[in-house]
Amino acid sequence: MQPTITGDTKLTAPVLRAIKSRLPQSVSDLIAIAAEGAKLTLTWKEQPTPFAVGICKQAWESVQGGAGTVEHVVADGGYYARRVADTAAEAIHTVMMAGQAKHGNSWLTRLDSDDLRHAREHLELLLSSDTSESHLEHTLTRLALVLARRKLAHLS
Fold first, then answer.
1. Helix/strand/coil percentages in the chain, nearest 5
2. Which of 26, 33, 86, 137 has a CA that sits 20 to 30 A from residue 101's CA?
3. Domains in the chain and their CATH numbers?
4. Can you tell me whether residue 3 is helix, strand or coil?
5. What is the full per-residue pLDDT of the chain (156 aa) written as tens digits?
């Protein structure tokens, strides 16, 4: 399935040019834009990244100027799944970098039960509305550490 963006703005040639003009060259070169009624279809020359699809969605929204709404963006290859994974990876990376600066690579030798206990504590603090730390990110990171150690153990 091709990525599509739909809305209620009539897609005339000037509107299509306006959308394309708002795209970075790196994205613009990868797509062909076609329209039928209020349906915009982006034909990709290669598998689109979530960033490229997101940029096209933003360009569409800016052309609409609030007159319409973006009903959906669908991209082949699990666009939303990739966005969720990217968001989680960014959060884990941020916490890991801070932890590595403070503790080095000590996570490699910790017990899974220690990280699972810490994850549970962060989750309980999150549920109690404690804002002393980014508990959701820390919970996610502790679980990722357990997963990574288990994967590394299978490679050994």
1. 60, 10, 30
2. 86
3. 4-74 (3.30.70), 84-155 (no CATH)
4. coil
5. 445 555 555 666 676 677 777 776 666 666 666 666 656 666 655 666 666 666 666 666 666 554 444 444 444 445 566 677 888 889 999 999 999 999 998 999 999 999 999 999 999 999 999 999 999 999 999 999 999 999 888 886
